[in-house]
Amino acid sequence: MENFNFKPYIKYGIFLLCIVLLMLPFHFVPSHKMVFPKEHFTFSNTFIFQSDIDNLIERYNNEAFLGKAILASDPLCKKLMEKGIIISEDKKTADMPTPSQPLKSVNTTYKIGEEIVYGTSHIITVTKYDPDTHLEFLDPEKGRKYVSVEIIYNNISDHSQGLDVMGINVYDDEGYIYDYASLTKQPQFSFISEINSGRKQKGWITFDVPKTAKNLKLQLPQEVSVLLTKQ
């Protein structure tokens, strides 16, 4: 009888263990395309799904005054508020609510010029919209056009960070999603550089869309949209 070779299974097991250990220090929120560190090293709440967020909001809103105060001090609840994933119902920011204020999930449409406050992390403002952008070295394909948005990113946190490129696009009233153009209107917004605490960055982002696309919206992280209309 041949000896069974355990080596491939041992390597596979070690690989899986490494993956698990690398993931444990972080919270993953798939519905908001976010990853952020846990308060403590634990097996719980590694993946936070939208149903978990909805359940937490329901628990909070159904609690009495004292229960709300206790739940609001929970590290996970505080993290979700800090990241702007859940907010007080009468605000568009993720400030810590008083126990009398109900909570809701962030899923809001903003207008050009309105500040979008992501907890104590950063503020994004779409300041301008160009519905027919002309790029010097790049013409759109037949039946298509370029549209551009100017945004300001304000880092209000206590550390350097940048705008997360994941999840940013434009979409029309039929739900079709459109991505970045090869070139961008100048001055362009840089996704590469990080912004120091207390500093701002301003620039344009250009998208390639069909001429027939109507009622375009800019999709930002955490399911936030901005209605794009000519100012």
Biggest sheet character:
5 strands, mixed
Order of helices and strands: HEEHHHEEEEEEEEEEE
Q: pLDDT average, as an integer? A: 79
Approximately how much helix is present in the residues?
A: 10-25%
Q: Quick recap of the structure?
A:
With 231 residues, this protein is an alpha+beta fold. 20% of the residues lie in helices and 30% in strands.
Key features?
231 residues, alpha+beta, Immunoglobulin-like, 2 domains, 5-stranded mixed sheet, 4-stranded antiparallel sheet, 4 helices, globular
Describe this structure in words.
The chain has 231 residues and is an alpha+beta fold. The chain folds into two domains: 10-105, no CATH class; 109-227, Immunoglobulin-like, CATH 2.60.40.1240. It is built from four helices and 13 strands. Residues 90-104 have low confidence and may be disordered.
List the helices and strands and how they pair.
Layout: H1 7-23, E1 26-29, E2 34-37, H2 50-62, H3 65-72, H4 75-82, E3 86-88, E4 103-105, E5 109-111, E6 115-118, E7 122-133, E8 144-155, E9 169-171, E10 177-178, E11 200-210, E12 217-220, E13 224-227
Parallel strand pairs: 5-13
Antiparallel strand pairs: 1-2, 3-4, 6-7, 7-8, 8-11, 9-10, 9-12, 12-13
